[in-house]
Amino acid sequence: MSATSKELRDILTRTLNALPAHADELRDLDAALGDGDLGITVQSGSAAVVKALGALHEEATLNEVMLAAAKAFSTANPSTFAALVGGGLLAAAKTVKDKDAIGSEEALAIGQAVAARIIERGKSQVGDKTVLDALVPSLDVLAASQGSATDTLDAMIAKASEQVSATASMQSKKGRAAWVQERSIGHADPGATAYVRFLEALRSALAA
């Protein structure tokens, strides 16, 4: 399955309209480890992206869609997560600059670009108890998948969810969460959880 620019806009709009429902969950998870602003970041960022996508001209390219999403999410709420995700999406926009549709190969390139930029700007890696702990393993699943889009997403969600559970036993090494040191153990990483909720919403959007 592949998605044109217009199809991607529709899918992302349905996906992001579902994410604010998880704002309280993400706020509570983040409050246990940091300043509790992740729920607001996801809620305001999702709404801003939906608005930005709706304002694009009918023939907007995939690159324009990605750029609009990046700018909207990064500026909707002043947080580290918003800056990292927005920066990742900016990097990802370059991967679809000359593309007419997004399939599994393009989706993998987008995910890898996002992960690489988060690693670079956040000076973090897998094992630091961040969104990377769910994102990177799920991309490995995508890279190896031979199934349909929905089957692939199911497998990515399963792997990412497994990794979120694993973050609960880790000590946070980055951001405000690192300040609480060993008290971060026992709590799942909120950024990784947000990523799983995104994948779940994307799966529902594709099935709609």
Question: What's the helix and strand layout?
Answer:
Layout: E1 3-4, H1 5-18, H2 23-33, H3 38-55, H4 62-76, H5 80-95, E2 101-102, H6 104-122, H7 132-144, H8 149-167, H9 190-207
Antiparallel strand pairs: 1-2
Helix pairs in contact: 1-3, 1-9, 2-3, 2-9, 3-4, 4-5, 5-6, 6-7, 7-8, 7-9, 8-9
Descriptive report:
With 208 residues, the protein is mostly helical. It has a single domain, classed as Alpha Horseshoe (Serine Threonine Protein Phosphatase 5, Tetratricopeptide repeat). The protein has nine helices and two strands. Strands 1-2 form a two-stranded antiparallel ribbon. Helix 8 (149-167) packs antiparallel against helix 9. It starts with a strand and ends with a helix. The model is unreliable at 176-181 (pLDDT under 50).
